[in-house]
Amino acid sequence: MKESFKNYSMKTNGQTLLFADLEAPGTPTGQRAHLTFKANRSLGRHNWLRLTPAYSRHLVEQLVSSLGSPDRVLDPFCGTGTTALTCAEHGIRADTVDINPFLVWLANAKFAAYTPEELAEAKHFQSLLRLPADKNGFWHPPLADIEKWWTEDELVPLSALYNSVKEADLSEPARNLLFSAFCRVAIETASVSFGHQSMSFKPRNGDNGMVKTCAGEQVTGLFRRRLSEILEAAATELDGSLAKAHLGDSRNLHTILRAKYSRVITSPPYPNRMSYIRELRPYMYWLGYLRNGRQAGELDWQAIGGTWGCATSNLMRWQPSEEARVPFDGFDEMISGIRKRSEVLGRYVHKYFEDCVCHFRSLARVLREGATAHYIVGNSKFYDEMVHTEEIYAALMRDNGFENVRIENIRKRNSKKELFEFIVSGEFSP
User: 16-103+243-428 adopts what CATH topology?
Assistant: First the structure.
């Protein structure tokens, strides 16, 4: 199943740069949207459910182009599973880890090999789907201010659709396919926008000034279309034993994983206060991974970079640890500069990088000697203080046994002019 790769690397000052001359035709200079989630929209299983900061399959393909079947890849920050799924598509074993149980479920659903019988089950459900006329009695999740997400006219058919999938007599793989389609429908009918780095609510007014909603027939039709797309992708050949997502904390990889890895390809959360729990909570509430706002905040607090809900108040009680001191010149001055403007943001950035210290210490315990690591990261700015995430990650890698550490600017982000994405790479030589 392995495809040929185009080599985009070049050398400068003795270092190999992977994407120095990579530019898609018609792409605004520097933005390279084909390295982001936008390039995954027509790529089968990669398009099952989007996550705004996700990178593209094309980027991963370049980074695994030299690997073969004896190798094993690790992505310690799973997201929607782009790294591990790309590896599996090219016959390479991969493991990925996430602290969010919904993302672990989604990734494993994308990694699975579906039998003809399981696909037939899902198709049969699709052919018989008729939402009940009764508009009462169907459960919907206890999501705060749920009317911001869906009007009552949308929530009723969504609730009926969810109940139909939940109560159907189906195998677990077939139900996973149906719930994947349901999640697509839920977000596509919600009054949210992904025009920024994170989700925001949008107005629901139609051309005539009235609230524009999706009726039950539209919800049903959309579900059938999205399920057809998912079933077509699920029918493609994939060895379901090659990729696996594990539930766990990336600061404790050595307690979760038993294998040794020859390559790391990942994109951890950026220090920009974006909460994946906030963006993913509609799916998590519908599928039962969240039951209340407190639980959402506690899960975000456990995640690296989490600062939503009660996580913000927890930050004000958090204290730095000498045992996890960040080995970067100027780090304390940078934190002090942020704290002068905002105590909570100063603590947030400080804790983020202390968590990264713990992550790299644990990572070193699951790598083979000679392993290479590639971290896709973005810098940040808080008030007038630049947070050079790429340089701090390079320092963390050197402090944990990596040599030949290098930084490459791969693209401009679509926000402040100072913000870029980088690949920080190195070879593990303890």
Answer: Rossmann fold (3.40.50)
